[in-house]
Amino acid sequence: MERIGLPATTPLADKPFHTKRAHRKTRAGCRNCKARKVKCDEGRPGCRACTARNQTCIYTIPPKGPKPSSAPEQPGRPASSAMTVLHEPLFIPARHDELDMRLLWFYTTTTYTSFSTGGLRQRSVDIVLKVNVVQHAFANPFLMDCVLGLAAMHVNHLKLRHLGVPALKELAYRARALETYRRAVEAADPATFPALLACSLLLCGLSTHVFRGREAQPLAILDWMVLWKGIGTIVEVTRLPLRFQSSGIATLFFRPDADLDASAQRLPGYLLSIAASISAGDPDFPLVATYYAALQHLGSLYLELARGLGQMLLLRIATYPTFLPAAFINAARERRPRALVILAHYLVFVKLRVKTRWWMDGISDHEIPSIAAFLGPAWEHLLRVPVAALQLTDHEDIARLLLDDPPIGSAPKT
């Protein structure tokens, strides 16, 4: 069909002026088309209309606001003659910068899994860690500081340089998390109790920097156990009313029950002798019941290990410190040898979970030698298994060592 006054074969260059037709609005068109209120095909370097009219085609970056086909210009980048297009919009809430958002993304996709025990029927925590904890974090800055610090630490542990977390920035996140958490504990606002509990759990991972690198300290395990025990203390102090159950994070603190009598029977005899051999004149005599309690819960790890290397074993390993009596923690911090021997055997179990719990990586290899060096030759007969575990990396080999079950064909015990 021919237009009025123009043959159908007239080239576009000969008919730069034509009747306007209805079209969908464009927000990325050139300046000339916008002025003439016609549809721009957004061709580069010049659109068809400007080419036909022999005009210079100029594109401008659109103003801020909803942009269905583009994203806002990024801060710090100079405007260019061509529009900058991002594949996804960049949403940055108040108080947080782009690095914060990258770390929050890394936490919700990767870091949270190191606190998960998988699909246990009794403890389905993945959604809690990814959703509920993050919701509480946006409402409680001290928890957000902990989440970001943990993610930064994880990024650098994996040496993911492309995510751009300088070591000093990781240190700043961690220092801010510890300081804001301390202030929140002192404030003791009941509205923050669920977030405080979630933060106390994540801090147990964030604080493991003391076992690695330049910040490594001998026997740091003693202060670290206090952090773990602190989870139970916060539960007792806050008494967690119905607010805790409705907060969505209660499942994070599920602890499996243990048959302590059966657990004690599964302990190696030489460990039971630690408490049984204490006489009335021994300085540790007032701690006999305390040592038995710590050994019974340690026995639950041996009992679970005999059933296999499953998720329940990992959960028992993670929650063991929360069962320890306060008197045992104090005895360990006083460097009492029997308490340190028990901790050294617990550290052998910790080696079974480092592949999935990156923040526990290196703790056992750092602390078992520290304990052995502190106790000296007088206690080395009770540290045979922990010291031998230092040479092992395979989980089945470590399990056989703990269960005193050498593989077929190995040399007999002497």
Q: Secondary structure elements and their pairing?
A:
Layout: H1 31-36, H2 48-53, H3 98-109, H4 126-139, H5 141-157, H6 167-187, H7 193-206, H8 221-238, H9 242-246, H10 260-266, H11 269-276, H12 288-307, H13 311-323, H14 326-333, H15 337-350, H16 363-375, H17 384-389, H18 395-402
InterPro entries: Fun_TF (IPR021858), Sterol_Uptake_Regulator (IPR053157), Zn2-C6_fun-type_DNA-bd_sf (IPR036864), Zn2Cys6_DnaBD (IPR001138)
Domain Zn(2)-C6 fungal-type: 29-59
Pfam family, one: Fungal_trans_2
Q: What report would you give on this structure?
A:
With 414 residues, the protein is mostly helical. It folds into three domains: 1-90, CD2-Gal4 (Irregular), CATH 4.10.240.10; 98-253, no CATH class; 260-402, no CATH class. It is 51% helix and 0% strand. It has 18 helices and no strands. It has helices at 31-36, 48-53, 98-109, 126-139, 141-157, 167-187, 193-206, 221-238, 242-246, 260-266, 269-276, 288-307, 311-323, 326-333, 337-350, 363-375, 384-389, 395-402. Mean pLDDT is 79; it is low at 1-10, 12-18, 61-92 and 406-414. Residues 61-80 are annotated as: Disordered. One of its GO terms (molecular function) is zinc ion binding. Keywords: Nucleus. This is Zn(2)-C6 fungal-type domain-containing protein.
